[in-house]
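Sorry to interrupt, but I need a hand with the structure work. Could you write out one complete protein record for me, on any chain you like? Just paste the record in under my message, thanks.

. . .
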Amino acid sequence: MFKKMKNLETAFQHVRGFTIAIVACAFIAVSFMAWQVKSESIALQSKIYIVSGHTAWSAIAADKSEYLPMLARGHIRAFHEAFFTLDPDEKVIRQNLTRALYLADGSAKRVYDSLSLSGYYSGIIAGNISQRINVDSVQVDTRNAPYHFRCYATLHLVRSTSDVSQSLITEGDLREVSQSDNNLLGFLIENWTTIENKVLTVSNH
């Protein structure tokens, strides 16, 4: 009788040990799977996809401060290209300037209003003039916000009778704002002024 009870107790201890071992293994397996899922989730969150046409390019997200100078120069370049790329088409002019004005504050709007009142845009249309800009370099001081910048560029005005090249230098400040569909890089140009705009060459056709 006692021998049978002892055998039952031994069997119970074996079953209990086996059960504890299974539970421990299951806990370790679940913990490992949870850690792996979390790691993969973090890795996926660090990836961004840039869509160009019908192709998606994978890129790795990084701390914005590492790329701040590059992003700032990209915003300034995008603004100047939108603001100064003009064709003798009212719709094109309106689209480009609308895009540019999302990237800057009222200082850019005042320049636009001044050019409108002076008949600059109507002259572009009436004279069948195409205006292009080449941004030669952008200097940005990102040590302290707002970030002061200076942009060096060349304007090219193409007429039916001549081509004109102009030196353009502008400066202003850059403030970080929320990103949006209209402002992908999340900056806003402030206190924008033109400090040089002079004719370099005139070529007659």
